[in-house]
Each structure stands twice: as structure tokens, then as C-alpha cells.
Amino acid sequence: MxxxxxxxxxxxxxxxxxxxxxxxxxxxxxxxxxxxxLRERYRVATLxxxxxxxxxxCNRQWLEAWGERTA
Length: 71
Hints:
Blueprint: H1 2-10, E1 18-20, H2 36-41, E2 44-46, H3 53-59
Parallel strand pairs: 1-2
């Protein structure tokens, strides 16, 4: 996502907002959030709300609703 945003901005484009199913956040599993820069600079809308059990699953990079992991 960051690379896409940088490409748009290098071409003089403007990112109005970012929409995603979920964005990983910092926490015990990920002390250095890799999306903090995103929320600091842009309007971000996600289906999974920060602070929810689903957000913790997103931080682990797997939502239980997707079913059992096969890999």
C-alpha cells in the first residue's frame, strides 16, 4: 500500500483516503506498527474497527472467519 501511495504522490497525484478490510496495528504481537504512518497522514477507513477482537486477528494476519489455515 505504501509503494502505491508513493507512486501516486511522485506523479503529483493526491491520496484522498485509504480504504481497506483491515490494517495491522501495533500491540503485543507487533510492537512497531507498520501502518502508523498511514493513519497519521491519511484518512483511513477499515471494515475491522481498531481495538476489536477482529483487529487482534488482523494483527496476526489471519481472520478466524476465513476458516482454518492450510499453510
